Amino acid sequence: MKTIQFANVEDQYRRYAGELRATDVQKLGEWVKGQPHLPPVTELELILFLHSNYYDLEAAQRTIECYYTFRTSCKNLFGNRNLDKDAILMAMDVLALMCVDIQLWEEGCNNGSILIIDMDGIHLGHLPKLGIFTLKDLLYFIQEGLPIRLKGLHLANVVPFIDRIMTMIRPFMKKELLEMLHLHTKMHTLFPYIPQHLLPSDYGGMAQSRKLLRDNLYNYTISCGDHLARYDQDKRVVESKRLAKPRTMGNFFGLL
Question: Using a CB cutoff of 8 Å and minimum separation of 24, what contacts does 58-65 make?
């Protein structure tokens, strides 16, 4: 198993000098310590939460609360992250979130993330099998709990029945997310939003093929399985210690 190489904290302060202040990180850390139900939060994690919220302390606090509470309570996405089990390969949404975890820890802050969801291979017969509650949980976590600056959401290889899918997911999307949503039936329409050299070769880009990029990323993620398992154990909310009303998935969507 591989060991995750965490981004250097001092590098983060240098890269974002003038915006990222150690005093704000300290204030956020003191707030975390005053919340007995929350797990320990590292300095790098505090920086990620602050940066993703454009250094707004109160917004960072809300994201921290959502991030750790959701990871503890949402069994659909975080209930089984044992990478020794072959079954995890069938849950690509779970594995994709693990990839995001590792990217955040190893690369640190960045000024924008763009999500691309490829709909190639999706057929009308898949619609009844779509887990609507899992989709709801995933969209909520992306919008409220993931410490990234989301700049765009692109659906590639859009299927003819996209209107039915949008009817299912639109109620779970905030106005801001809907405004950054773009649908693509042809790959070249991605180029105005994403530099062509960053896109996979089968998208008309200059990078490696989507399959090769995906396989390399997933294999690396699986090789970090021990660390991910420990993280899940160590970063859990203890609801019995929460000063306010305990949170469950039944009342979670009133959290913010």
Answer: 60/28, 61/28, 61/31, 62/144, 62/256, 63/144, 63/145, 63/147, 64/28, 64/32, 64/38, 65/35, 65/38, 65/255, 65/256
